[in-house]
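subagent[fold] <- orchestrator: predict structure for attached chain, return tokens only, no commentary.
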Amino acid sequence: MAHEGLWEQLNKFDPTKTAQRAKCQYLSSPERYIVTLLNAEYVVNLSDRNIFSVQSGSPQSAVLGTPYGGHRRKASPPYGVPKRTSGLTVEPAEFLEQLCILAYLINARDLPLADKLVGAETLPGGQFFFRGLHSLPIEKLKNVFGNCPEVLHRVSAQFDAERCEFGDASIRLYVLPRLPLTIVIWRHCEEFDARASILFDQTAASQLPLDALLAAANLTVEALVKDSTESS
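subagent[fold] -> orchestrator:
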């Protein structure tokens, strides 16, 4: 099973307190969390250690308590979704999605945002971690949005992103309920190459370990790049 060690850690926590820390929902019978990742709802079943997302086009159900979100294919309802909600569009979470959600449930803290943006290298341990294979996906952002930064605003709207005033285009979106991410693009021109930045709130390392922060950044950039390609 993927992330078996993380599941073992999660099971040690009081679920009600975990939901409060992580700013998510906990439901019983069967025991499960409802966590928002990139504006999509994910069900985390504790009994069978399964995580799946539910599509936004599905009917709202009391089993989740919130509107569904995501972009997934049709499948049979997994354990934790009542039979009356059959026909939902669901799909198992991918490896990085599982990592982010489990690590978040384990590590999240009930802290206010510092409202101070920092680079990944300034986070505790970040100077040594975010290198080489662990580098943030800056090049993808430059390649896709560097010639037309305004596309970033269009494709990020579905993630409820907030426009910022940095660079030629910039947004802030919530990857997880306590983890905002800020992306800034500077346009390519005759004098300067395109530039991009991924910035975190100063509290980010209190909500996720560095490997999960990298996964969160990669998931975010991949989602934005995919939507820019599909909308072009």
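orchestrator: received. Logging for downstream: The chain has two domains: 4-107, 117-231. The helical segments are 4-10, 15-22, 95-107, 126-129, 138-145, 150-156, 204-207, 210-231.
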